[in-house]
Design goal:
With 262 residues, the chain is α/β, with parallel strands linked by helices. The strands form 3 sheets. A 4-stranded parallel β-sheet has the order 3-2-1-8. The protein has a two-stranded parallel ribbon with strand order 4-5. Strands 6-7 form a two-stranded parallel sheet. 41% of the residues are buried.
Length: 262
């Protein structure tokens, strides 16, 4: 993955945003995302003024990674770049848009859900794909199945992702990050509930970090560790299995009974 894709993957979640009043909401929303430890945003062209929102978010929080989503024409790529956008996301695979973005030297994550889409993406040398709409297109099971013939791709599923299933997706090594709007709903933005947006972002990061920590610990072979380190590893694994996942479920609004499966 390139540097930007790696940085997005490290965060693990990408808020997918529709801003109807960017002059009012873009700057405080950017601050709320950063306060929740999610300094990345996909601003969709589903609402007029998406380029204005991108510009205002970058001005408010220069450290953020802000890109354009629901891009369906080359003029929108131009507008996003002019506003300071750093990546492009399209709902489907459009060879013209992919070629144009590459010509403009801006990362693009096209929507791909079929073997034909993946084949087309392969010809363009892409590494990270959007999988949209994720749940409606077969979810994690289909993403895993598609990775068998196409192991070179990492995937960013969007559509139907929530705190309830985020852990399941992030636990898969195929997943680069998950896109979602549950932390930036129209209701939260219209009511300017920035504190709740920050809280939901931090919950998401807690889930991502907990799942990835547990997976990283389990991947260390005992033969590579001293006896003391091996004992520590199994202690951490026990903590992860017995404590972390129930806590993760509580973060997602469950009862902590272990309903989230890895």
């Amino acid at each position: 993955m390139n540097v930007l894709s790696k940085a997005i993957s490290d965060i693990g979640v990408v808020p997918v945003i529709k801003l109807c009043n960017p002059e009012r909401d873009a700057a405080p929303l950017a601050s709320a995302l950063c306060a929740g430890n999610v300094p990345v945003a996909e601003v969709t062209f589903r609402a007029a003024g998406a380029d204005t929102a991108i510009r205002l978010m970058k001005e408010a929080c220069p450290e953020m990674m802000v890109g354009a989503g629901t891009v369906t024409e080359t003029a929108q790529i131009d507008a996003a770049i002019a506003a300071g956008g750093q990546f492009i996301v399209t709902p489907g695979f459009d060879a013209e848009l992919v070629a144009y973005a590459q010509e403009k030297n801006i990362p693009i994550y096209p929507g791909c859900t079929t073997p034909s889409d993946y084949h087309a993406a392969l010809k363009f040398g892409l590494e990270v794909l959007k999988f949209f709409p994720a749940e409606q297109s077969g979810g994690l099971a289909k993403i895993k199945a598609m990775s068998a013939p196409f192991p070179q791709f990492k995937v960013m599923p969007t559509g139907g992702i929530s705190l309830k299933n985020l852990a399941d997706y992030i636990a898969s090594p195929v997943i680069a990050a998950c896109g979602g709007s549950y932390m930036v709903t129209a209701e939260l933005i219209d009511s300017q509930n920035w504190k709740e947006i920050s809280r939901l972002c931090q919950k998401s990061r807690n889930i991502v970090d907990a799942v990835r920590l547990g997976a990283a610990v389990k991947d260390i072979p005992d033969t590579a560790l001293s006896s003391e380190a091996s004992a520590l590893k199994h202690s951490v694994e026990d903590d992860y299995n017995m404590v972390t996942l129930p806590e993760v479920e509580k973060l997602a609004g469950g009862d902590g009974s272990g309903g989230i499966q890895r």
